[in-house]
Amino acid sequence: MVFFTPEQKAMVLEDALKAGHGITTTRSRLAIRTGYDMPETYVENVSGVPMKIIKVTTYFKKQWSVTMLDTVAACPIGGLSFTDEMITWSFPWKNHLLGTSDIIIHEMLMGIDGRLIDSAHMAARGFILTRNDDFIVMKLPIGGPDGYTKSGVVENLYHTRYVIEPMLELLWSEGGMDSTRYRVLFPVKTPLMPRPLQLVDLTVVEQRIFDVVLGPFLHDVELVNITFSGVVLTVIEANARGFNIQDQVFQNGSKSFRLNVPFTDTLVVRTQTDLLATTYTLPIIYGFMIVPEYVAFSYVTSVQVTFQDIVLPTVTGSCDKEQFYITISNGNLGVDYNIMLGTRDLNQELRAEYGIRDNGTHLTLAVPFLSLDVAFELMYSTSLRARVDVLVWEPVSKRSLSDFSLACNFPMTMTECFSNGSISALAVKVESVPQLVPKNLRLQDPSCRPKFSNDRFAYFSFDANSCGTTRTFYDGVMMYQNEITSGDGLQVFQQANKELASPSPDYRVTVSCFYTLNETQMISFTSQPLVRAPMVETGYGELHVVMRLALDGSYSNFYAEEDYPVARYLRSPLFFEVMLLQSTDPRIEPVLENCWATVNEGRESTPRWDLIVDGCVNLGDTRRTHFHSVTPEMAQYPTHVKHFEIKMFTFMKDSVVSQDQIFVHCDAVLCAVNQADGICQRQCPSPNPLNSRNKVRRDVANDRFQRTLLSSGKIHLSSS
Which residue ranges does the record assign to the ZP domain (predicted)? Predict the structure, then answer.
């Protein structure tokens, strides 16, 4: 066999079979089958149409004779042109490779998928088969039912193409010789054409579900997975999560994919665009597969809705005689907000202090009107007007969600007039005088200062004939009057920074007591036999004991809390006063049971040094503690006051100062003056120093007494 490529290439039959050619013979026929891509084929243009050519001469040898048989086959591989609606196939029927120009065509037939069709079928499908001088022209409408449409992908974009396999069959003869039947099966694929996908957003905001439709697709596209905010879910996993993914098939065979996702799902990105509106965003990446080729592509999109769905927290409140009661409705934000009460954010400690309770929809708390977070607006003779300010704010954007204020009048006695001629008065720091320091207030007599004061109150107790109190008579009534002021032109200091502030507004509180000069009261009574002796009912109350460090041994001036730490020289005296407050009973006496010094602030910390043990000075201390007597000139009730003195010292370790500070602590017991048991009548041992420095153990009998725990501030050892 000699193949023409078009150069000659000779092969014996065995080599031709090994090369992949199919060659069979019968008594009357020779059949040759070869592939388009075999090296023994070649391409040649015929009237502008490329044709694939196989041309071979076969030699048959029989005895002394040789027979040559020339065979040639030409198959078109081109000749196509396309419009949006029509495929045109042009076949050159005058082919010099197959014969001479003297060709007579007896039949020209058309078929689809290897089967001939008649003219009625052609007319119904819109097929056209014609012949001109050079070509046989076949026209096939794109999209007809005899072909099919196939999906494709170009640069991750969805495309489609139309595929059909027409057949052309010719019967011709030339030069009066035998007729030749020529059949061409010619698969046609249109170029890939872009098919932009349409995303239809059918979301109804009130239903709070994203509803989107993506399509159209051909039947050979399958949805494999969807990626939401980086989370990849298969269709089965998405439906199991509560989504709804469905195929929607249309009458023309195409389909789309419908997706439902609730707004509440965690894969939905939620952004609060303003105080009342929320934007819900669903980022989507569809993952598709074209079968059976398994070509993957994706479609990236995002849907977003914004609407006003936020119900802000609301605050309501009420009062009784002692507390504010605040209720916060959470709205639909949950509890992802902070609460500011007054000027402080409520941390866990303050939440526990105010007893905050949360039932999921509402949050409640109770605020005593004397709390630090309550502002005092006005003080009256029998009440105090206080206000609580509540701010609910969002910690991320720091936006205010709700602002609420509630002011109420709370019963509170500001002035008390006693029948023995003593007067007590309470001055309150209100918000209109923010720079006022209550301890600097005084009565008309500048020497009359508060008996007790803190950052918000000053308590005065004085006799009606002292402290500059005036007396006026009218209509049978005697009026005693005094005034609490900050002094003439007195500048107050803010304790926070010790800097001189501008003069505060004028602060004056008038204290008045009225007594009837002459009054007759009629009292009626009846008597009855006494069945049993009257019994005294035990009363209950609170007595306060304080310990202060005096500036010197006169015990007339004392260090305030803000003065600590106090610096003192080594071995310089420290004068301490322990005083009972809020009692006018001279029969009550505070007794110092134990006093000791420590390096650290904790009462139970170590090391420690005993100063007073079981009511007596520590005889093992070479710098012995000294008690000083209290005279009536120094205190109204001398039995209520104890003065003692120690020498400033420091703790040593290996003859080196280990710490340059001390704290002094005491346990005080309140005793009746005539009480004769336990610590109240402790007999101290000989004043001679003991050789042992062991601590004297406390009497077990003393354990039944109620003790008051006292501690000083830090006292620092001064080196200069």
Answer: 416-687
Same domain flag for 548 and 689: yes
Domain with 560 in it: 544-717
Mean pLDDT value across the chain: 87
Grouping H, G, I as helix, E, B as strand and the rest as coil, residue 235 is helix
Residue 14 host element (H or E): helix 13-18
Those residues with Cβ within 8 angstroms of residue 645's Cβ, 6 or more apart along the chain or in another chain: 553, 573, 574, 575, 576, 625, 626, 627, 628
Are residue 500 and residue 580 in the same domain, yes or no?
no
Same domain as 676, residue 557: yes
Pinpoint the alpha helices (H) of 119-197.
Answer: 119-125
CA of residue 417 relative to chain centroid, distance = 57
> What pLDDT was estimated at residue 272?
78
Q: For residues 4 and 241, what is the distance between their CA atoms, to the nearest angstrom?
A: 67
C-alpha 133: how far from chain center: 82
Instruction: Assess whether 210 and 332 both reside in one domain.
Output: no
Is 491 inside any structural domain?
A: yes
Instruction: Mark 461-490 as b/e (b = at least 16 C-beta within 10 Å).
Output: bbebebbebeeeeeeeeeebbbbbbbeeee
Number of separate domains in the chain: 6
Predicted confidence (pLDDT) at residue 259 exceeds the cutoff of 90: yes
- Beta-strand relationship, 362-368 and 374-379: unpaired
Copy the structure tokens of residue 65.
């004779």
Contact 308, 318 (CB under 8 A): no
Determine, yes or no, domain membership for 539. Answer: no
Q: Which residues, in sequence order, are bridge partners of residue 213? A: 200, 258
- CB 34, CB 41: distance < 8 Å: yes
C-alpha gyration radius of the chain = 55
pLDDT digits (tens, 9 = 90+) for 653-708: 666 566 788 999 999 998 887 777 778 876 776 543 333 333 333 444 444 556 78
Please report, for the domain that includes residue 230, its CATH number. Answer: 2.60.40
Ordered DSSP codes for 59-70: EEEETTEEEEEE
Question: Which pair of structure tokens corresponds to residue 518?
Answer: 């002459």
Domain's final residue, options 253, 281, 308 = 308
List the one residue out of 221, 250, 218, 222 whose CA is nearest residue 236.
222
Tell me which residue of 564, 711, 715, 605 sits closest to 649, measured CA to CA.
715
